[in-house]
Every structure is written in structure tokens, then in C-alpha cells.
Design a protein that fits this description.
Elements (H helix, E strand, L loop, with lengths): L1 H29 L13 E7 L2 H8 L5 E9 L8 H4 L7 E8 L6 H10 L8 E2 L2 E2 L5 E5 L2 H18 L6 E4 L3 E3 L7 H4 L4 H17 L10
Parallel strand pairs: 6-7
Antiparallel strand pairs: 1-3, 1-6, 2-3, 2-8, 4-5
Helix pairs in contact: 2-7, 4-5
Function: Has an important function as a repair enzyme for proteins that have been inactivated by oxidation. Catalyzes the reversible oxidation-reduction of methionine sulfoxide in proteins to methionine.
Keywords: Oxidoreductase, Signal
Pfam families: PMSR
Amino acid sequence: MKNYIILLIITLTFSCQNTAQTNKKQEAVINAKPIELPLENGKAKAYFASGCFWCVEAVYESIKGVDEVINGYSGGHTDNPTYAASNTGSTGHAEAVEVIYDPKVVSFATLVDAYFASQNPTQVNGQGPDRGSQYRSIIFYQNDSQKKIILEKKEALAKKLDAKIAAEVYPFQKFWIGEDYHQNYERLHPNNSYIRNVSIPRLKRFQANFPKALLKEKH
């Protein structure tokens, strides 16, 4: 019995230490200085997490001025996250998208509007049926101007809904591109049951409520 108690104490001690280390690593990510990416061939990049990236990819690819959306992971404290590792919730990362867009056609502010318009903004740690920290909502900013836009829109939405908005606001650090089979998933797998029952309905709800002038004629 005595040996069991000693073993239990040792186990709890190491568990607490591991948890504290993980929390400290995640805290460092949240409090880091944002990294601002330069334009490439006149195109900018923005990063969002809002539940399953298959859904978010389809939403942003329906907006005028968006050239490409890439699925991946961001917001965590581990290197080279994978889909399997992210799903454990231990990496700190959320499923995220990289939105490559033309700032002369669509503004960062409009992309933030699309972000809030395409989700349940009050759902914590998930969207729809997808639950867990890997599905939490995060908006990433690269400079003070973007941070100001995000916080102002978040505050305005909270007042409008008279509710707390779940989206976290993180300084952008790094985006890890996801596995090849996750890219263009909604477009390549239209008959997948999740796509038909979750992704497409979410996309259609967004398109029905977002200004038509900002949407592409065909997605």
C-alpha cells in the first residue's frame, strides 16, 4: 500500500509538471509578438480557425478577391503538427486556414466579417458537431491594425447579440500546411456525407446572409 501511495505521488507530480509546461508553452504563443508576412506578387495572407477546416475553406473560396485557401494547423506550441496529433488536443493547435487574397479586391476587415458571418460565434471549442480545442475559433492578427479591426468587430458583435463571443485573438506565429488529402476537400468530395450534411449547408447559410456583391458567381 505504501509503495502504491509513493508511486501515485510521483505520477501526479510529473503529470502536474507536464501540464504546467504545456500551459506555459501555450501562454508564450498567445503573448508572442505577431509575425507580419510581406505581400507576395501583390497577394496577402490571413489566418482563421473556425471548426473543421473543410468548411472554412469552402466559405473563403466563395469570396471575391480570394485566390486560394489552404488547410492546416496554427495556434499551438508544437512543431510539425499532424491531423492525428491535433485531434488529441495536446498540440495546442486548431484546424486553421491560410487565405491568400488580393487586398485591392477584398480587405482584411471583410474577411473578418465573413469569419463571424459563417459560424456560430458563441460556440466554445467547436463548430456544429465538431467539438474540442482543435476546433476552437481563433482569429490571427499580424499587426496592430489587424488586431484593432478584430477586437472592434468582436466587441460590436457581442453587443449586438448580447452574448460572449467565443473567438480567441492570437498573434500570428506560424501556419503548418495540412496533409494533401485535406486540401480542396469539399470540391473534390462533394458526395462525402460530412460535406453534404455539414459543410455545404454551412456554406449555403453563409452565402444567403453575406452581401451578394462580395461573393463569386460560382464557388
